[in-house]
Amino acid sequence: MTESPDVHESALVDVNILLVDDSPANLLSLRAILDLPGYRRVTASSGEEALRVLSRRSDFAVIVMDVMMPGMDGFETAQLIQRRKALAQIPIIFLTAHGAGELRDVDAYQAGAVDFLTKPVDPAILKTKIAVFVELYRKNCELKSWADKLEQRVIERTEALRAAEANYRIITENVGDLIAMLDRDGKRLYASPSFLTYFSAEQIAPGADSADLVHPDDRDRMAQLFQDTVQTGVGSRAEYRCIAKNGVIRYFESVGDAVHDAQGAVSHVIVVSRDITERRIAEERIRYLAHHDPLTGLCNRTYFAERIGDSPRAPPQPAPCGDVRRSGSLQGGQ
Q1: pTM, whole model, 2 decimals?
Q2: Are residues 27 and 55 in the same domain?
Q3: What is the pLDDT of residues 275-294, one digit of tens each?
């Protein structure tokens, strides 16, 4: 086997062409005709040698092979080539002596040939036919390269998504905040384990209505906020009350963010919530002490001054008696 030394080594430019003929003079003639830029001419002097070449590499754009060779002829060699899966797609052009009558169309095509030429070979015809197969080979290589790159990109993106999902789950399953994923109708797609501190597994199961956890007095307001987020794609922040699994009312502050699909439509909403009950109790306690005597619990001067309008700000509505935890004045803000 010999290879042309005067071509580039770049696989993106050069294309391998296998020339098979038992006559050195014919091989020399074929090499001269196909001495063109981008063609790497590989030669074999018999069918057996051609099979050895193809066992080492299969990246040939086309095979030009003589039919009448001693030992393994062109028909037998082509049939053995076609049996190998990695070689079956390589087009074969048969060469036959002019007027020898050893080649019929049906014989050539049954052996796996895509075309045949008679000797002496017309250089222009051979170049034209080879150019067609070379261009086809290059296009196939280009498509395969793009397919391989696309497949690799899909693999990388899939691995990245899996890693991101794993990281997301690690975070959501170990934070104190309540993280929920809701569909466009407010049904649960996901709820972090922190929900179980306040609610039962049935209440936060996939498909459960998130509105069922909200205090009835706040439910309409929160439903409207959620629909606004779905319709506009703009998230919002709100404070509201929920009834926990032990029947105790808890105050939560939630931030909802819309997630968009490839077409820009809202596909689902991520809601991050935090229990602010203790903060609301502390705030109410501060307001209570600002308007009541700490010893007697009676309303102080500030309370009466604000009630009669001496204060420039609107008076608050503190609980008239001691336990702020039972105060009915706490309202969920937006």
Answers
A1: 0.47
A2: yes
A3: 999 998 888 888 888 888 77
